[in-house]
Request: fold
Amino acid sequence: MSDSDARSRIHETVQNNDVVLFMKGTRAMPQCGFSSKVAGILNYIGVDYTDVNVLEDEAIRQGVKDYSDWPTIPQLYVKGEFVGGCDIAIEMTLSGELDALLEEKGIAFDKAAAERIRESNS
Amino acid sequence: MSVTEEIRARLEQAFAPQLVVVKDESEAHRGHAGYREGGESHFRVTLRSAAFAGMSRLQRHRAVHEALGEGLLGRIHALALDLGTPDDPASEASGSSGGGAG
Reply:
């Protein structure tokens, strides 16, 4: 697969799915602690998301870094927009900004579960 | 210069930070992907700088990536960033946790 093929596949994936997590491993079996944390948040707050395992495709693994101009995995996208990596996803969960973003974009999630994460980390 | 020292030097030059802590957490990742004997593979950086005022989270992270440069980033397996202005509390226990490169 050429670089431009990878780029268009990534573009298509983030445009056609409301929430996408590029990660190492899968949502059910993450293979990196950082990916595991973000998948864990999304699983816990019940967001319907698409997981893309970059370990299965070297072109996507490099391609997504070029696409977002971001050097690390995981990478979270909401409605085609790059949100951030693990630090940012955690900070936004704890500050309530992730809730606000999901609400603004009309994406369903379990707000009470998000509150529980904040309570147990306060 | 060690990687730790190089990270610190670049951050000090780019952001004139009020606080900069560069922790080599590699030992905590012994046996995990990307671990190297001798450490200097997994880092946690806490940075407080007035330069971050008015910048979004993404912009702050991108500014740090740029200051470190591709060459240095390419030698690090994982980098957790806790970035804020001098007004933000610097919490070592914030649970912030970065991302895996490679």
In short: The longest helix of chain A spans residues 3-16. The interface with chain B takes residues 24, 31-35, 37, 69-75, 82, 84-88, 90-92, 94, 121 of chain A (CB under 8 Å). The radius of gyration of chain A is 14 Å. The longest strand of chain A covers residues 19-23.
